[in-house]
């Protein structure tokens, strides 16, 4: 395996780690807090919102946006670090 | 000015704007026609994607669906936004790096097979046609309710507008009109929502208003739970469907969103891989403005409707109730002849039926806003329907000209290919218009098809195509067909063959037809994996292709390989 190839596969490995981390949060917030734990979380209040209901109709959507922007920042950094960026 | 004058004025102005943009940005080459020349900025692409994605259903019907479903309506909110995380992280950057024009392009090249490509084209056409018929119908309904023209004429006018800018401008024209349409639709959605939020809770931000308190100091949601419980309905903030079904539907909608060809193709139009990632973020942010407002509109709407009708004398009902009774979106039948309206969960004594579309369409009148706001909402609903229709028509025309004609007759000239693309777009507009005027009785049902099929066909094959070097054409073709056939049969059985059995006691594992796409997707994944293990790995040039799309460097312009 030459140098570029091993560098590329190291980049890919880091990329996969990032994906696993971000998608775990994606799953935990939407399916976890928004569906499986809703009834439990509804005993807590966020302003006038029952917390589980807030996660299902507001919180998970905000989290999704945040996750994509974190991904953008992380990948731009990785691209530069491994010299696979486009500019 | 009268409501009708304002509506004509604002809808007319918005149409003039779209046509102006179409003339200014018309496409000159196939590359401009298919992917806008690949030079769209991430921000513009984000807005265009948001308009492309938010259909007449999102704009007109979603809030009303949530009004009556309460917590269960969350499946739409999470399902139709969570898919963008999958798109941004798992699909968009790699497909942009792949650098061709369509989803079947990718399937055909990655699985080195015309057969795989044709299966993908059939899926793309089926998904897009079911969707576009609904949009045309939406345009017709808006015309007939606000402009007092028959639905048929509304559809024809809508067809002419879309025809003009989709056929002339291709992806380039569509992209920039979608940017304008996003601005129109989001403004139209937010204005009434903000005013209603101020009226009820004193908070101008609907997202905070929904969690706010009413004048008497009681939280809105708590009050709503109480009112609904008194009338015999389930509480607004707790679930009614089984958790399994909620989970399955949400996942099917998310994965389906990420597999819809007209959404995926938008990420081919940006210059670089990093722009594809960024524009998915912008797209979701723009979509979420509407999607986090919708639950507020939903709760405000059902609260206002019940407060202003329940136990009220029929002759004292507010003016908007009478206006919308004319269109049959609200019907009142005084069953016990006491001269008052009884709203109840009990079908026998309930005297009020409300169409879900009321929650958005009547919102300016409920909030007693000036007449121009009504015109604005009409223009917004039209923008939502037209932008989605245009995006879908482009997928249809591209599928015909590029994925079918060009694949089997690679020698045709670019000029001829462009002419075929335009002809196909024209044909698709006419066919969609026909279905808009004569809707098959099952428009609502076929939407379940579109998402289920996208989830069960495209999503697994594209994901494995990128993340697994071992998945081969045998696996992909079997997977797509198995996922597709399973989902198709399950939905058809409960929607068309035995609709009387469409309830949890007959469903497999308690999964409704809306959520079965999740199982279809799992079947597709398993077939892909198993069959690929048993058959030879993909050839060397495909292995190289996979390695290449994993690395952003060298994306360059989209091109014909």
UniProtKB/TrEMBL annotation, chain A:
Q: Which UniProt keywords apply?
A: Membrane, Transmembrane, Transmembrane helix
Coiled-coil-forming residues are none
Cited InterPro entries: Na_symporter_ssu
- Source organism, top-level taxon: Bacteria
Q: Where is the Sodium symporter small subunit domain?
A: 9-85
Q: Does the keyword Secreted apply?
A: no
Q: Does the keyword ATP-binding apply?
A: no
* PROSITE patterns hit by this protein: PROKAR_LIPOPROTEIN (PS51257)
Q: Which residues span the membrane?
A: 20-41, 53-73
Q: List the protein's name.
A: DUF4212 domain-containing protein
User: Which species does this protein come from?
Assistant: Algoriphagus confluentis
Task: Give the taxonomic lineage as stored in the record.
Answer: Bacteria, Pseudomonadati, Bacteroidota, Cytophagia, Cytophagales
From TrEMBL, chain B:
Q: Which PROSITE patterns does its entry note?
A: NA_SOLUT_SYMP_2, NA_SOLUT_SYMP_3
For membrane topology, the record states: Multi-pass membrane protein
* Segments traversing the membrane: 6-25, 77-95, 116-133, 153-170, 182-200, 246-268, 280-303, 372-400, 420-437, 443-468, 475-494, 506-531
- Where in or outside the cell is it found? Membrane
**What is the superkingdom listed in this entry's lineage?**
Bacteria
Q: Which InterPro entries match?
A: Na/Glc_symporter_sf, Na/solute_symporter, Na/solute_symporter_CS, Na/solute_symporter_VC_2705, Sodium:Solute_Symporter
Record keyword Metal-binding present: no
Q: What are the entry keywords? A: Cell membrane, Membrane, Transmembrane, Transmembrane helix, Transport
Concerning its family, UniProt says:
Belongs to the sodium:solute symporter (SSF) (TC 2.A.21) family.
* UniProt-listed NCBIfam families: Na_symport_lg (TIGR03648)
Q: What is this protein called?
A: Cation acetate symporter
Q: Which organism is it from?
A: Algoriphagus confluentis
């Amino acid at each position: 395996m030459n140098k570029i190839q091993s560098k590329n596969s190291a980049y890919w490995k880091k990329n996969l780690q990032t994906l696993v981390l971000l998608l775990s949060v994606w799953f935990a917030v939407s399916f976890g807090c928004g569906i499986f734990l809703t009834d439990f979380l509804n005993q807590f209040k966020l302003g006038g919102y029952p917390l589980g209901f807030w996660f299902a109709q507001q919180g998970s959507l905000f989290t999704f946006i945040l996750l994509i922007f974190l991904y953008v920042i992380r990948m731009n950094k990785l691209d530069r670090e491994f010299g696979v960026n486009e500019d | 000015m009268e409501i009708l004058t304002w509506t004509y004025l604002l809808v007319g102005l918005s149409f003039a704007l779209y046509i102006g943009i179409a003339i200014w940005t018309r496409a000159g080459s196939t590359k401009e026609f298919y992917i806008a020349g690949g030079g769209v900025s991430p921000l513009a692409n984000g807005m265009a994607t948001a308009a492309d994605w938010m259909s007449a259903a999102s704009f007109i019907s979603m809030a009303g669906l949530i009004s009556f479903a309460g917590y269960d309506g969350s499946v739409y909110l999470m399902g139709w936004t969570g898919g963008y995380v999958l798109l941004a992280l798992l699909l968009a950057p790699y497909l942009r790096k792949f650098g061709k024009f369509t989803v079947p392009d990718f399937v055909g090249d990655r699985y080195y097979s015309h057969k795989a490509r044709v299966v993908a084209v059939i899926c793309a056409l089926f998904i897009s046609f079911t969707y576009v018929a609904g949009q045309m119908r939406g345009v017709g309904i808006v015309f007939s309710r606000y402009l007092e023209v028959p639905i048929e004429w509304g559809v024809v006018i809508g067809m002419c507008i879309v025809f003009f800018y989709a056929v002339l401008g291709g992806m380039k024209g569509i992209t920039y009109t979608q940017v304008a349409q996003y601005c129109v639709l989001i403004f139209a959605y937010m204005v009434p929502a903000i005013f209603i939020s101020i009226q009820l809770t004193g908070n101008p931000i609907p997202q905070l208003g929904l969690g706010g308190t009413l004048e008497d100091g009681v939280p809105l949601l708590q009050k709503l739970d109480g009112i609904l419980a008194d009338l015999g309905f389930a509480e607004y903030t707790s679930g009614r469907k089984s958790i399994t079904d909620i989970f399955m539907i949400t996942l099917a909608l998310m994965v389906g969103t990420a597999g819809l060809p007209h959404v995926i193709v938008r990420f081919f139009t940006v210059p670089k891989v990093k722009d594809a990632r960024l524009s998915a973020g912008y797209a979701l942010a723009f979509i979420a403005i509407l999607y986090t407002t919708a639950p507020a509109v939903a709760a405000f709407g059902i609260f206002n409707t019940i407060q202003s009708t329940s136990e009220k004398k029929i002759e004292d009902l507010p003016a908007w109730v009478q206006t919308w009774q004319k269109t049959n979106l609200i019907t009142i039948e005084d069953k016990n002849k006491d001269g008052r309206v009884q709203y109840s969960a009990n079908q026998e004594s309930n005297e009020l039926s409300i169409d879900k579309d009321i929650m958005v369409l009547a919102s300016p009148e409920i909030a007693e806003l000036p007449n121009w706001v009504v015109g604005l909402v009409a223009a917004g609903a039209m923008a939502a329907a037209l932008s989605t229709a245009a995006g879908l028509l482009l997928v249809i025309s591209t599928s015909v000209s590029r994925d079918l004609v060009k694949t089997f007759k690679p020698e045709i000239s670019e000029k001829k290919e462009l002419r075929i693309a335009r002809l196909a777009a024209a044909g698709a507009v006419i066919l969609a218009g026909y279905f808009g005027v004569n809707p098959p009785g099952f428009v609502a049902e076929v939407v379940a098809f579109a998402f289920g099929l996208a989830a069960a066909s495209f999503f697994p094959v594209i994901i494995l195509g990128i993340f697994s070097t071992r998945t081969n054409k045998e696996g992909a073709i079997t997977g797509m067909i198995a996922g597709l056939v399973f989902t198709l049969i399950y939905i058809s059985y409960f929607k068309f063959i035995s609709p009387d059995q469409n309830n949890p006691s007959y469903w497999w594992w308690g999964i409704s037809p809306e959520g079965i796409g999740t199982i279809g997707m799992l079947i597709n994944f398993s077939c892909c994996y198993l069959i690929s293990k048993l058959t030879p790995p993909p050839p060397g040039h495909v292995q190289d292709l996979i390695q290449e799309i994993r690395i952003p460097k060298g994306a360059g312009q989209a091109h014909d390989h």
